[in-house]
Amino acid sequence: MEWRLRAIRGATTVSENTVEAIREAVSELLDELERRNQLQPEEMISVTFSVTRDLDAIFPAAIARPRPGWDNVAMLDVQQMHVEGSLQRCIRFLIHAYLPASVSVHHIYLREATKLRPDWSFPQALQASQVIESKV
Fold first, then answer.
1. CA 96, CA 111: separation in Å to the nearest integer?
2. Closest CA to 78 of 56, 63, 109
3. Quick check: 117 and 109 in contact, CB under 8 A?
4. Mean predicted lDDT score pLDDT of the chain
């Protein structure tokens, strides 16, 4: 089976800057990521989470790390660049993973984050031009 390095994007929003609200939204986002992509943590190389400057109650990686198998995934939390008028209370991720070349990738945009990428707000297959081949 041929494997390729893939990039998976996703985002969600929260109603308030609390541990509970962020935990609920990140868990929902990662549950959808795993369900739609049949992604296993051992296939992931790294995950970068970004949050808008109005979210600081908890790190998204701290929510992901206790998930089964996620404790061995390299994760990084960063603050999203602020642009006036941009979506507030938003959590994004960028995941790099090795997946079978025949598997479609679905980017996950939930809640108010569907406004960021309306074209990816529903299960969407990765276009062939977005696939990065690897000889590893």
1. 23
2. 56
3. yes
4. 88
